[in-house]
Specification:
Length: 423
């Protein structure tokens, strides 16, 4: 067991009950304050631990870290140190925060500076994203969409169970939680019309997804096996792949989504490490037909992470409209990365790979409004009495996720975005 994951550990930093960030989590992010320019930090309870301060004041001595590795606007240089080194850093931070360790605890001046209340920080994009790929790995989601847009009898296309379907997305428009987005406009064809119009989307949707972030640079031509994938993945975030369904339906044949997706995607600011998620591994769904040898992945490669979507309507009330779980994914992250690189496609540090909408088997676990309202045919009733088919201006969507066992909660914080009127 990774020492920092011990469920018995307690921190001298107060961690409120139900916090996403107990000592067993220690996710990494980039933050700034009124006085601090962007630096790397780790979340603990309601505080952020300033890694630049710890590094510069000797608390991380002996780890052989390059100078200035945390004094950066992105975590890319830190991630590039590799899984072994970043795990050592997390283990050392865990040591420093343990209730029975006095090194930082007893140094009142140091801890006053190193621990910044979350209420005083602004979280920023954790990585500089070079490349973004969006998979389509939930069988339930692919079946629902195939049923609605094509044919319920042949909802899954013949390739779906043989390879993790994906498309290359847009990295430049990925934003951090809390960033508002304008309703996109684009070409859409109304059901009775013969020709398209350009207009603000009438079917703006969210997609409940998770994404993994890579920490390796590979050479062009060199595939990553399912075995090697763990070593290339630093951790995971929540991911909202906002989608304009009317634009999508008109544009997506034959090359897949384009402007219906690339106007914005939102990620949560804290990268939860694969290390912290280790105790929450589960087996995935049985894969039939048998996959090709390069996609075989032994051991438990899925994660038991409870997910929910909260909609705060512009009328004012918030409600949970979906509960799902990462464990439902048919294709796991090792298979996704192995497939992505089987042709020799190279990867970079800080690349983002989203799962695709994570829908579960029951209608309340569908991870998009497209599915929850069955393309607008079954409106959702919100607690304030209003109805929703798709997202309205002023609505806020918040994704949350956590893995929990033995009284430990490994949370992801919030992935939040508000929709503003079209420009
Ligand atoms: Mn998607």
């Amino acid at each position: 067991m990774i020492s920092a994951n011990n469920p018995k550990l307690k921190s001298w930093v107060e961690v409120p009950a139900g916090s996403d960030f107990p000592i067993q989590n220690l996710p990494f992010g980039i933050f700034k304050t009124k006085y601090l320019s962007p630096v790397a930090g780790v979340a603990i309870g309601n505080h952020v631990l300033d890694l630049v301060y710890l590094h510069e004041h000797g608390f991380l001595d002996g780890l052989g870290l390059p100078p200035g590795v945390f004094n950066q606007t992105y975590l890319n240089s830190f991630l590039a140190l590799g899984r072994k080194k970043t795990s050592e850093v997390r283990n050392r931070i865990s040591e420093l925060l343990r209730h029975d360790n006095d090194e930082l605890k007893a140094d009142v001046a140091a801890r006053e500076i190193a621990l910044v209340p979350m209420s005083e920080v602004q979280m920023l994009m954790p990585v500089r994203i070079g490349n973004y790929t969006d998979f389509y790995s939930s069988e339930e989601h692919a079946t629902n969409v195939g049923s609605m847009f094509r044919d319920p009898k042949n909802a899954l296309l013949p390739n779906w169970k043989h390879l993790p379907v994906a498309y290359h997305g847009r990295a430049s428009s990925i934003v951090v939680s809390g960033t508002p987005l304008h309703r996109p406009q684009g070409q859409l064809k109304l059901p009775d019309a013969e020709t398209p119009i350009v207009a603000p989307t009438r079917k703006l949707d969210f997609e409940l997804e998770m994404a993994f972030i890579t920490c390796k640079e590979t050479k062009l031509g060199k595939p990553i096996s399912t075995e090697e994938a763990d070593d290339a993945i630093f951790g995971m975030v929540l991911f909202n792949d906002w989608s304009a369904r009317d634009i999508q339906q008109w544009e997506y044949v034959p090359l897949g989504p384009f402007l219906s997706k690339n106007f914005g995607s939102t990620i949560s600011p804290w990268i939860v490490t694969l290390d912290a998620l280790e105790p929450f591994r589960v087996a995935g769904p049985e894969q039939k037909p048998e996959v090709l040898p390069y996609l075989k992945a032994s051991g438990m490669k899925n994660f038991d992470i409870s997910l929910e979507v909260n909609l705060k309507s512009h009328q004012g009330e918030a409600s949970t409209i979906c509960r799902s779980n990462t464990k439902y994914l048919y294709w796991n992250i090792n298979q996704q990365l192995a497939h992505h690189t089987v042709n020799g496609c190279n990867i970079q540090v800080g690349d983002v790979y989203a799962s695709g909408t994570i829908s579960g088997p029951s209608p309340d676990s569908y991870g998009s409004l497209l599915e929850l309202t069955w393309n607008g045919s079954k409106p959702l009733q919100l607690p304030d009495g209003s109805l929703r088919t798709f997202i309205e201006d002023g609505d806020t969507v918040v994704l949350r996720g956590y893995a929990g066992r033995d009284g430990v909660r490994i949370g992801f914080g919030e992935c939040k975005g508000t929709i503003l009127p079209a420009l």
